Amino acid sequence: MFKITINDQGVVELEGRLDASQTDEATMVLDKITTSVTVDFKRLEYIASAGLGVLFAAQKRLKGTGQGLRLVNLNASIRDIFRYARFDMVFQIE
User: Fold this and answer.
1) What is the CATH number of the domain that holds 27?
2) Which end of the chain has fewer CB within 10 Å, C or N?
3) What integer is the mean pLDDT of 55-71?
4) DSSP letters of the chain?
5) Domains contained in the chain, number
6) End-to-end distance of the chain based on CA atoms, in angstroms?
């Protein structure tokens, strides 16, 4: 199961497992974002390379306009995935 929502404060919230079967849903929401935004990983259990690709595409598009994604509340294993992929150099992670 995967769920992506934008809360009342404009924070993108991820929940469940972001893998190849969920990329269309994630892309649909992320493509609507035009300004810098926080992405909350608090309820995300797992991210696959396909999920990383969706986030990277959104980051690349936003960076082209001087905006970007700020990632918060990554659990240890997801933080390791970002570090191994060297995405910690691409995203602002807190």
Assistant:
1) 3.30.750.24
2) N
3) 96
4) -EEEEE-TTS-EEEEEEE-GGGHHHHHHHHTT--S-EEEEEEEEEEE-HHHHHHHHHHHHHHHTTT--EEEE---HHHHHHHHHTTGGGTSEE-
5) 1
6) 25
AA identity, residue 33: I
Amino acid sitting at position 91: F
**Distance in angstroms (rounded) separating the CA atoms of residues 76 and 31:** 27
- Going 68 to 18 to 13 to 28, the CA torsion angle's sign is positive
Q: How confident is the model at residue 55 (pLDDT cuts 50, 70, 90)?
A: very high
pLDDT score, position 30: 96
Which amino acid does the sequence have at 23? Answer: T
* Global confidence as pTM: 0.93
Query: Residues 16-54: pLDDT tens digits?
Result: 999 999 999 999 999 999 999 999 999 999 999 999 999
